[in-house]
From TrEMBL:
It comes from Coemansia guatemalensis. Its EC number is 3.5.4.12. The gene is ATG7_1. Keywords: Hydrolase. Residues 5-185 form the Ubiquitin-like modifier-activating enzyme Atg7 N-terminal domain. This is Autophagy protein 7. The keyword Transcription regulation does not apply. The keyword Hydrolase applies.
Amino acid sequence: MSEVLRFETFSSTVEPEFWAGLAHHKLHSAQLDTKRTTVRGEFVGGRRHTVRGNGQAGPPQKVAVPARLRVSQDTWTIAEDDAQQQQQQPGALVSVEGYLHNTNTVEEFKKYDKGELLRSAGTEVLDAIRSGRATQRPELLWPFLLLTFADLKKYRFHHWFAFPAVTADPPDTATEAPVAISKFVAREADLAQLLDEFAA
């Protein structure tokens, strides 16, 4: 029996500088306007990091860190030239476009129809595929959504990330069983080098 294809889910990271940018955006640009705003995030690929024990003896260990979507102070800069934006990114980062929906009250934030927000974004992804725009701009295939409420009096922020995707019904399945990479790389030292180069 074929196995259903599964993909690693995104996790999200918010850099502290992002909140200062959101406060500035709320006060000087959006004010009470709740229309969605196009923003940028960075997809950071999964990596392996060397970790040394907390005062414990023994060699350093490699620890896997999953892929994640990060928003930071650069989130508010929308490059007019996407190619130039991509060239400026370090090797492990990919700039992606997302949509910020900022609410005016915590009640509005809590009652926001997240299902409709996801459906609408998913429809846009599907339209980009059908129209061929995703061929020219592959980043249209992985937008992110960020719903926020900024309580500027108490400097408290609420947020919710979502990563809309088009899924198949019935789900796609693998035609063959997965094969471990060690089947193709005979020596353990070569495998370690390959993994280190991938994480670089």
